[in-house]
């Protein structure tokens, strides 16, 4: 498991809240498709990254990436919500939301890791024998 790769992929996923913040501050209303497309794009980047890096455990790496993203986006929300919205909001203001956020994003990583593992299995059947979950 590559901690550096997991952390880097978690940081890359911050594009989702950053796009929303920029759009909101610019006065644009994003369609419902934008977050979905961003999530799909990030998932593709994650899958390609763990495959390119030949990560021995893509599922664990991407689950950690999801948790890193959850922690960083929670922190970003805590820092920026008072500045941008004038009030403290988001998961830090509602601590009961933190655990579900961590679980949902770990689940995102689990699904992405499963896709990466399936991709690896289809490309190289012998790679699966060498790659732990």
Describe the structure in your own words.
Keywords: Membrane, Transmembrane, Transmembrane helix. The chain crosses the membrane at residues 30-50, 62-84, 96-119. The chain has helices at residues 3-12, 15-25, 33-52, 58-85, 98-123, 125-130. The chain is globular and about 50 Å long. The protein is 76% helix and 0% strand. The model has no long low-confidence stretch (mean pLDDT 90). It has one domain (3-130). Helix 1 (3-12) crosses helix 4 (58-85) and helix 4 (58-85) runs antiparallel to helix 5. The protein has 133 residues and is mainly alpha-helical.
Which structural class should the secondary elements be placed in? Answer: mainly alpha
| Global mean pLDDT | 90
**Approximate strand percentage:** under 5%
Count of the domains:
1
User: Which overall shape is indicated by the principal axes computed on the Cα atoms?
Assistant: globular
How many strands?
Answer: 0
**H and E order:** HHHHHH
How many helices in DSSP terms?
Answer: 6
Largest sheet: none
